[in-house]
Amino acid sequence: MFNMMDMFGKVKEFQSRMKDAQASLNTITESGESGAGMVRVTVNGLKQIIRLEIDQELIRPDEREMLQDLVVAATNKALENVEPKIKAHLQKATEGLLPNIPGFDLGSMMS
Predict the structure, then answer these.
(1) What does the angle CA 58 – CA 27 – CA 23 come to, to the nearest 5 degrees?
(2) Which of 33, 43, 96, 109 has a 20 to 30 Å separation from 74 between CA atoms?
(3) Whose CA is closest to 90, among 9, 25, 7?
């Protein structure tokens, strides 16, 4: 028999774990490179840039446009790389709390 109080308890625990997991997203980091490693961007799980490294060769006025393009490309790659880590982190934090319902994707709630 379905126990509604038990389900409410699980939902509350899920919410609590999700809140804790989201609060610790800043501990997850991932990097992206462009220009054969001449530009490297590191982001955290909150999708904030936490480090930008630029090869000395690119720091010239005549390379400005290329540098801008490489920074954008490296940033986008880092954000793309961190996304699966964020999802895995949040799923692990809430593992086993809610039943596996076919067609119901918690992943969409976590990104």
Answers:
(1) 130
(2) 109
(3) 25
| Under 8 Å between Cβ of 97 and 13 | yes
Bridge-partner residues for 11, per DSSP?
none
How far, in Å, CA of 77 to CA of 11, rounded? Answer: 35
Give CA separation, 57 vs 53, 66, 104, in Å: 12, 12, 50
Per-residue pLDDT tens over the stretch 48-66? 999 999 999 999 999 999 9
Q: Compute the distance between CA of residue 2 and CA of residue 60 in angstroms, rounded to an integer.
A: 68
Please report the beta strands in 21-106, taking only residues with DSSP state E, as ranges in sequence order.
Answer: 29-34, 39-44, 49-54
Enter the DSSP assignment of 56.
Answer: G
Question: Which positions ≥6 away from 50 have C-beta within 8 Å?
Answer: 29, 42, 43, 44
| The CA-based dihedral angle spanning residues 75, 78, 82, 84, taken in that order and rounded to the nearest 10 degrees | 110
